[in-house]
Design a protein that fits this description.
Helix content is 28%, strand content 25%. The chain folds into three domains: 17-87 and 234-307, Sulfite Reductase Hemoprotein, domain 2 (Alpha-Beta Complex); 96-218, Sulfite Reductase Hemoprotein, domain 1 (2-Layer Sandwich); 311-400, Sulfite Reductase Hemoprotein, domain 1, CATH 3.30.413. The chain contains nine helices and 19 strands.
Length: 407
């Protein structure tokens, strides 16, 4: 087994990453997980790892604390459960795709057509591991905050459904190329990915210039389409097709124990789960009474069940001791701030807690980051006018949670 040690590499079942608490694997199931599958994943996280399970900001599952010998056992166990990891270039649809009563169109057929063309043309072998495409059909849980190389977003033009195509970033910062129908969207997406691949394995769509994109843009309608940018909060109750509901729960700072995940899965019976961006877990096809019972279990187990929970305003990296690069115990600091100074989390910004200068897991939009260094902390504010007293409070709290406090 070979470790992924290069910064920017993606840990996977085939290539785990060595971290401070052992080996880490990350995977995104191709489809949802049955409650039975989720429960068995929790069992394996305890048996093969340290019992810590995480859901990432992009909606992938991470299992921590593996060893060189147990990581292959975990991969084999997942295969035995019939769980397939999203392989190749990631083409992401929302967690409620095909279920959401408010979506403009089911994005899965378009996403499937893009995956098929990528496979037919064998493009993914020439692309870096983080190159990705989002296909957003509209609805309750947008993909706007996910950074992607190609972004497709459905909109209506009279009775016609069209797709807006943008490249290189999140929804707020991506560059618009134009609009077209589903056939145009597939062709333009593949053309962009081919341009990226021609620039080399480390290239991204943000590296493309006007000359690279001229032919692609010429095939699209360049009329300006305004689609509001929205945040996706996966916590709450979502009406879905068939008169049923999906219920979203949050993992506090993206992390839960295998015991908590296992108990929630057991309480869900035969229902399906889906992973959601912004570190959420959705239970599907619940009747209203079933939802109330399951949410009571989730509350008892420490999951976030209210959309206004202040913990949702704090994003952390793994931090010390889980990450070997971290100087800051990020999750302890996050718990400290939420429990003692939640008044700071007034909704004007999101607090990002980073164990080192790499600032992993940094969110888009207005944010304030507490950065851990070897002997001190730093505060970095982006698109936020931060008062001096708040900066002083965050610095003081941060210094108290350094993994090696200054003498």
């Amino acid at each position: 087994m070979k470790a992924q040690l290069r910064r920017g590499a993606c840990p996977s079942l085939a290539a785990p990453m060595l971290s401070g608490d052992g080996w880490l694997v990350r995977f995104g199931p191709e489809v949802g997980l049955s409650a039975t599958q989720l429960g068995k994943i929790a069992d394996m996280a305890a048996r093969y790892g340290n019992g810590i399970i995480e859901i990432t900001s992009r909606g992938s599952l991470q299992i921590r604390g593996l060893t060189a010998s147990s990581a292959p056992d975990l991969a084999a166990g997942l295969a035995d459960l019939g769980i397939k990891d999203r392989s190749g270039t990631s083409v992401v649809t929302g967690p409620l795709a095909g279920y959401d009563t408010t979506e403009i169109v089911d994005p899965r057929p378009l996403a499937g057509a893009i995956r098929d063309r990528i496979a037919q043309l064998n493009i993914f072998h020439r692309l870096g591991p983080k190159v990705s495409v989002t296909v957003d059909g509209g609805g309750a849980l947008p993909l706007d905050e996910i950074v992607a190389d190609v972004r497709l977003h459905a909109f209506k033009d009279g009775a016609q459904i069209l797709w807006r195509l943008r490249i290189g970033g999140d929804a707020a910062g991506a560059r618009a190329l134009g609009n077209g129908n589903a056939q145009h969207a597939v062709a333009a997406t593949i053309a962009v990915l081919d341009c990226v691949a021609r620039k080399g394995i480390d290239a991204r769509a943000r590296d493309l210039d006007d000359r690279d994109l001229a032919t692609i843009a010429a095939a699209l309608n360049r009329s300006d389409v305004s689609i509001p940018t929205r945040s996706a909060n996966p916590v709450g109750l979502f009406p879905i097709r068939g008169g049923m509901f999906a219920r979203g729960y949050g993992l506090a700072f993206g992390q839960a124990t295998s015991d908590a995940i296992g108990e929630l899965a057991a309480a869900a019976g035969t229902h399906e789960f889906r992973l959601a961006p912004n570190r959420g877990l959705l239970a599907l096809n619940l009747a209203r009474e079933e939802e109330k019972i399951l949410t009571a279990h989730a509350n008892r187990l420490g999951f976030i069940t209210e959309s206004g929970d202040p913990r949702l305003a704090v994003i952390t990296c793994a931090g010390a001791p889980a990450c070997a690069s971290a100087h800051l115990m990020t999750k302890a600091l996050a718990e400290d701030i939420v429990s003692t100074r939640r008044d700071l989390l007034d909704g004007s910004f999101r607090l990002h807690v980073s164990g080192c200068a790499k600032r992993c897991a940094q969110p888009s939009g207005p944010n304030v980051t507490v950065v851990g260094h070897e002997a001190n902390c730093e505060i970095v504010a982006e698109n936020v006018a931060l008062a001096e007293n708040i900066c002083a409070i965050l610095l003081s709290r941060g210094r108290a949670h350094l993994s090696a406090p200054p003498g």
